[in-house]
Specification:
The chain is mainly α and 163 residues long. It contains 4 helices and no strands.
């Protein structure tokens, strides 16, 4: 029984993790702000230049370009995090509504949990007794079968000639 519970918990947790990752990846892929930031950053490593802007400045040093790249990456990550936090706010309202619904059925849920725990404890404790009863019954049945076989052999055995 413990293995079945463990398997059920593993499957439930695996499914929850799968659904969560799928929701996060879907949000990341469908978020237009994040996609625009990623395209801009991945196109040239720095934000795209506006064609109507002033002519480009003098080439920047290695550390300045690295700092600008890090700044752009952090901005994209911040946008993605803001989108995820916005999505999690919706999860909070759903969880709150679920909790309110569960509170309405608190007595029934607790009674069902109590019955389930009691059934599990009885099953666990009755195991040795049930095993003993099954062993006695099978031994009794086999003993009767052997005695019936011996009786039938004697009944149908050929008679000894001139004994």
């Amino acid at each position: 029984m413990q293995g079945a519970v463990e398997l059920a918990v593993r499957q439930a947790v695996g499914q929850a993790v799968k659904e969560t990752l799928q929701a996060v990846l879907t949000e990341a892929v469908t978020n237009p702000d994040l996609l625009a930031a990623v395209r801009t950053f991945s196109a040239s490593g720095t934000p795209a230049a506006d064609p109507t802007a002033d002519p480009p400045e003098q080439p920047k040093g290695l550390f300045r370009r690295a700092g600008d790249g890090i700044k752009a990456g952090l901005a994209a990550a911040g946008t993605a995090c803001a989108a995820v936090v916005g999505r999690l706010a919706g999860v909070k309202t759903v969880a709150h509504a679920g909790w309110q619904l569960a509170k309405q059925f608190k007595g029934r849920v607790l009674a069902a949990c109590g019955v389930g725990v009691a059934a599990g404890v009885v099953t666990y404790l009755a195991g040795p007794w049930l095993g003993g009863a099954a062993g006695w019954l099978s031994g009794f049945a086999v003993s009767l079968a052997v005695q019936a076989r011996n009786a039938l052999r004697q009944l149908f055995a050929p008679a000894a000639a001139f004994a």
